[in-house]
Amino acid sequence: MHNLTFLCRMLASATHEMQNILAIIKESGALAGDVLNLNGPPRMKHGDKLFSALETLEAQVERGRTLMMALNTCAHAAAAEYDVLELSVFCDRTAVLADRIVRLRECSLKLVKQLDKGRIRADGFDFIQTAYRAVELVLAGCRAGDELTLALQPAENGQAVLRVASKTARAVPQSDAEFDAMTARIGAQARLEAGELRLTVPLASGE
Amino acid sequence: MATGLSILLIDDEEDFIRTLAARLELRGMRPRTAFSGMQGLEELEREAPDVVLLDMRMPALSGIDVLRRIRAARPELPVMIITGHCSEQDRDQALELGVQGYYSKPVPFDELLGSLRVLQDPSGGGLPRIRAVG
Fold first, then answer.
1. Which of A28, A130, B69, B119 has the most CB atoms less than 10 A away?
2. What is the fold, at CATH topology level, of the domain defined by B6-54+61-129?
């Protein structure tokens, strides 16, 4: 745990620094675009390629920014800075972090949030690990081209449901002792069905 | 001579605020830069801007420290936060101190411009148009 704490402190610091670096890259690219646009569309040879490159630069900075934000939340969560979590924010972060493993399986992941506000009392790092692992378990039964949905939904009796579902897979995800321990730590009830996994969590009272 | 909004940018990331200032200047605004909280307060004392753009995490004097001093001396001065660190705690603290905007880096430039435009002309009228200055 000592090593993990140190790693997370470094990660929190580095991701903060990366946001500054990305901001400088973005503004520098945008300033170049501003100057090129000063006198209307540039007439220089291959000017379109330059603008295309600036657009790519901006898109990639945004991609990096989203990833850095997710990692930053993860690092602060691992340093036990959260005990009450805004589910919507932590689902955003989980979806960003899980996107790569989904794409490596040639699948896609869509985040659907039907609950804007809703907090739970749990350790943030435990929550991200559990939600990430839920995506992995469902993904294990998917084939290339499948579409996964990570949905945050309201439920009865002051609860919320985090649902990971495949569009086409019909195999029941296989849980394990590690995942069972994770769900217990965040106070969730797991339900595994054909091609999907549901985590039901109690919302913090008054939220 | 530019007659637009006078903006004081305070951030220890020199390349960032120099570039941001250049973009604002191209839109007819009058940016000044300060590379530390203390330097920012000195600039503020020397000539009051219309608005301050302030980073949160800076060595020595943090953004929150600077914001508290600004609020004590000039409670009406609009301040917008631009930060690479976006913790809920920092944001709540800044909002409690009455900031007019809170942006994470990299900054959504059009949103920032829209907020500055509202400060310049509360009746509205769109984003400041890009134009050459100097």
1. A130
2. Rossmann fold (3.40.50)
